[in-house]
Every structure is written in structure tokens, then in C-alpha cells.
Amino acid sequence: MRAGRLAYHFVIFTCIGAAAALAPLFVHAADPEQRVVHVAFVDPYSPSTTPAATSAFWARLQELGWVQGQNLTVETRWAEGRIDRLPALMADVVARKVDVIVTRGTPATIAAKNATSTIPIVFASMGDPVGTGVAASLARPGGNLTGLSSESVDLGGKWLELLQETIPKTSTVAVISNPDSAYVRKIRKNLEPAAKTRGLKLRFFDVREPAALPTAFREARRQAQAALVLSDPLIFNQPGEIAKLAASNRLPAAYAFRVFADSGGLMAYGPDTTILFQRAAQYVDRILRGAKPSDLPIEQPTKFQLIVNLKTAKALGITIPESILLRADEVIR
Fold first, then answer.
1. What letter does residue 144 receive in the DSSP assignment?
2. DSSP per position, 3-68
3. Same fold, 10-152+271-301 and 155-270+305-332
4. Which of 41, 151, 311, 319 yields a CA-CA distance of 20 to 30 A from 182?
């Protein structure tokens, strides 16, 4: 591994004390050769958003002995960025009496929690499990949910650092996001002190529907030198369109997930979703073999991947500093 490359690790919180008695019923212990299991995957986005991550999930599950068409049947549901569809999708998979529900993102996980207190739920990635009431704690989630959190309080400061280092004359950063997202509201709150520390001003542009995106980017370009785009299902479901808007407005922007850099965004810094999904598959395996979700600590990433799109930088007339290129996990040329 070359110098400067960011590694990715997880903090696993140790559990202390005896487990509390649980009312929900969980799946019985299973061996891949002894029974057929039924797993549902419910995603608020579309299949095109992170194909590598979802493929990694099913591939890892197969490595662990669960093979579709043999001892594994699958239900997949996609909300296509419409959060309002999630309750109905969850009700559908619950009615099918699946053994485990796998979710991505905070809205899908909350919808799953509201739909069932007995079927185990594994979230492959969500923002703030404790703050949103999904889990009692990271060490002892409680109830029927566990999984992988993508949250880090340091992310906001890191995004601003990368933008300021890339565009040194930046004095104002536009924050484009959906304020109705609980996770986005928390990030926005944490951004304020980080911006003050770096001598930056923030301008917030609210986007509650896709039709508002063009206006938000035009105004952002008029009032700021760079932008930070915060993800929720509305934003995350259309990375290509958002990257085009940033390009057409000649607005350098940073994002939380590599799908945006792959789609033409300038840079992305955030958790490696492929690893999150692989770990989620291991949690599903443990639950199918008899583990209780309440006994599986929620994992958090401690380091993240940086993706830089050099083609986009050249199109914007930006020279990416060598210091950033050396730290990048991948440079798209």
C-alpha cells in the first residue's frame, strides 16, 4: 500500500454487563446446509447508486455459505429516492415473513423499525443510530436492530479542509442539502463551528425536491467559491444530475460518497460503502446462525476514502494540490 493512502478500520464497541431479556422473537440458529432462509433488502435509492456495494453484500453472503437459488431467497425493494414509499415497501417484506431485513440509510432503517419489532434488521449504513432513536447505544443496540453506522463528527471539518486546500481563495462555502433530513440537520449544525475555526462563511441552500436543484446551484455559484453537497435519499439518488449542475455552474464541490466523484463530481470523502456492505453481510450471517441483533455492537468507521476526479478538476481549471493527490485513495484521470 503506497504512502499516504487512507486505510479503513472499524471501532467495535465492547459490551459490558448481562444482556437484557428481549420480548421479540428472533430466527432460530441455521446452518447453510440445513434450511432455506429469506432475506429482504430495502433501499431508499435506486440500483444504480452504489452497484459495487450491493454486489459486494451478496458476494460476501455467498462466501459465508448463503447462495441464492439454493438455501437463500431474496426480496429487493427500491424506493427510487422517494422516502414516502418506504413504509409500504417495509410492510410488504414484513408480510412475506422474511428472516432478516437489510436496509441502507437512516430513512429506510427507521421505516423498518416502525414496521416490525420481531424481525431482525441489519442496517448497512446509516447516519446516527442513537440520536435518531434506532438504537439504545452503540455497544448495546437493544431491540431487533444492529449494523454499520457511517457517522463521524469529524466529516464536516474534513470536507471544509479539503475544499479550502484545493481552492485556497475560498472564503464562502455553499452547503446544498435537504433540511428535512435529521442526519443532514446534525451535520449542518456541526459544520458551523468547523467553518468558524477555518475562517469560512457558510451559505445554506435548501433542496426539498429535485426541481429545486438547478436554482440552488445557480445561487450557490453566485454567493460562494465552492460547495459541499450533503447526502440524503433525494440528493443521493441522482449523482449524475448533481455533478452536471456543479459542472455547468463551474462550482467546485465536495461530496460524502464516491458515487458522486465517479459521476463527475470534483472530490468525495467518506466511508467505503463496499466495506460497510461486506460487514453487513457478516452480521446477517451471524444472525441467521442464531445471534441476537441486540448482542451485536454497532460498528463505526474511523478512517475514510478520498476520491479525486482529475478530469473534472481540469475542466474547472483547478490544479489539485500534490498534498491532496498523495492522500487520495483513488484519482480518476
1. T
2. TTPPP--EEEPPP-SPPPP--S--PPP--TTT--EEEEEEESS-TTSSHHHHHHHHHHHHHTT--B
3. yes
4. 41
Calculate ∠ Cα 6-278-230, nearest 5°. 60
| pLDDT tens sequence across 16-48 | 333 333 333 344 445 555 789 999 999 998 888
Render pLDDT for 191-232 as a digit per residue (tens, 0 to 9).
999 999 999 999 999 999 999 999 999 999 999 999 999 988
Judge whether 193 and 270 are in contact, CB under 8 Å.
no
Length of the chain in residues, anyone? 333
- The class of domain 10-152+271-301 in CATH terms is alpha beta
* CATH annotation of 155-270+305-332: 3.40.50.2300
All three cell numbers of 139: 455497544
Cross-sheet strand order for the sheet of 10-12: 10-12, 299-301, 145-149, 121-126, 100-103, 37-43, 72-78
Count how many Cα atoms sit within 13 Å of the Cα of residue 109 in the half-sphere of its side chain: 25
89: CB partners within 8 A, 6+ apart: 42, 77, 79, 111
Spatial distance between the Cα atoms of 34 and 178, rounded to a whole number of angstroms: 46
Ramachandran quadrant class, 237 (left: phi over 0; alpha: psi -120 to 50; beta: rest): alpha
- Do residues 144 and 120 touch, judged by C-beta distance below 8 A? yes
Q: Say whether 313 sits in a helix, a strand or coil.
A: helix
